[in-house]
Amino acid sequence: MPRALPWTSAPTGEGSTRRRILDTARVLFAEHGYPGTSVRLIARTLGMSDPAVYYHFPTKQALYRSLLIEPEYGELPLDRLALTRENLVEQVVHLFGWWAARPEFGRMLLREQLTGQEASMAFMETSYEPWRREVERPLGVLLGIGGVDASEMLYDMMCGVFWDGILSHGDRFTEMTLEDAFQRRLRAMVQLAIPGPLEEEA
């Protein structure tokens, strides 16, 4: 499961300044929310001037929107494996891993969803499309008409695990999801959510 964070590299030059602003803003938005995070707070935290931040992002809303990155899941299990129930379980775990590697991103989204922040709500609406493509459609092939209901239940369950995890464990959530015990529980939950008998072990 990929765990590389897109903001852990250390580029140089103007791109580095932009990345530092985004990294800091993500943490502050997650901690204080959109209303409680000002451009001035971001600039002061970085030891920069307000105009230096505005040079890269003309408004706070533009900065926030720049943080709403579309998931890049990379190669998926079903890109190289046959469509079976067990391989679909691995597909779901893979998708979950992208989000689990980004707890600050999740906290930021959750905080703004709860307050009805328009950009965050719109992002979550569009973020369902990859799930529909990579999980709901394969489930439809496996289960027929019941695939949509199974997909919606599974999506809600994965969201529940994610939101509960980042709220309960904070920054340690990523580390926790890599533990064998968590991985076993997660796979067991996904297996239970996909109707049908488990495949025989080889």
What key phrases describe this protein's structure?
mainly alpha; Arc Repressor Mutant, subunit A; 12 helices; disordered C terminus
What does this structure look like?
By secondary structure, the chain is mainly alpha-helical. It has 2 domains: 14-67, Arc Repressor Mutant, subunit A, CATH 1.10.10; 77-193, no CATH class. It has 12 helices and no strands. The chain has helices at residues 14-36, 39-46, 50-56, 60-67, 77-80, 85-100, 103-114, 118-126, 128-143, 147-169, 173-177, 180-193. Helix 6 packs antiparallel against helix 9. The longest helix is centred in the first third of the chain and has 23 residues, at 14-36. It is elongated, with a radius of gyration of 19 Å. It starts with 13 loop residues before the first helix and ends in a 9-residue tail after the last helix. Mean pLDDT is 85; it is low at 1-13 and 198-202.
